[in-house]
Specification:
With about 350 residues, this protein is an all-alpha fold. It contains 12 helices and no strands. Helix 1 runs antiparallel to helix 10.
Amino acid sequence: MVKTLLVTLTTLLCLTACAPEGSALDEGSWDLLDAGKADGVGSSTYGALARLSVPRELEAMRAAMVVLDDDVLPHEAKAFRKQIGRLRDHVDMFAFAYKPGKHRDAWKEIRDELDVGYESVGHFKDLFDVQDVIDPAQAEYDLDEVADQRDEVLTWAAGFGEPAHAAEVDAYLAAPSIDKLYDRPKADQARFYWREAGIEPDHDLSGLKNIARLQRALIDEARDDLAETPEIGKLTKEEHAIAFHDFRKRIRSIEKITTYFPEITRPKDAEEAAALLPTVVEAVDRYGALNDRIGAYLRAKDGDDDDRADDIADDIADGWDELLAWQEDVDLDEVLDDLRATVRK
């Protein structure tokens, strides 16, 4: 992924440097959408970007669904879950472009349905992740547990893919408003995009400029939270584990926006952004690996395997100390600050 980002950002840098003045790639018009240039006013709005982005992610998720069958194993569901997450991210980022109905809110229904799917596939995939093995051949599954979790995933997928429902979802997500923004109560918004940033899209800004503005705000929030991570405490306590997991999601949102929308990076800073991103990715991965150990600890506790739980708790404590030391050694705060400086305005 990082290598792909480097290629994308470097290509954008070259194209911009070579673009004639006034073209869609020069510094003054970087946020124009190629697919909408002929549409006149509003062709590069927040809603126009939604119309380009969300259906594409929906199509990719449907294609990834092919992995699901009666024999699918937990480790084989990873790519599919990632695609559900990508679609959900885009539905979240472009929530304000979708019109609520008078009697029902299709956006909220779809968003909630994706959340259920993401969690169901996540619980299924966790049956592999908590084993702390890399090679799937080393995984030892409880076949009854696998079957139960698989049934939940297949039931969700069947409902989401039911032809009439699928057609309704496709039609709705393909038709965001190009020029209007709709109210989205904070209680309905995902925590780790607009709600976390404490802002809403600006009608007077293009889609890409709104995404860039969101990214800067998220980085500001993450840097504030990073300063507080040493105070989180023991991760085997639920409230501490929640704070830990929330920070991981915050920096993961930053990573995702950088990769979803490389256009928001200044071309002259493309190489710097691509050099900074691996540290952010590593932070997400390190937090994720430790979060898997927390999951293994909870499974051991639920199974009354106190000796195993105690051993995992020791591993978690050591891993947390190492992670805190690592983020200080790599100056993660400075990395986030430097990444913010690469975002266009």
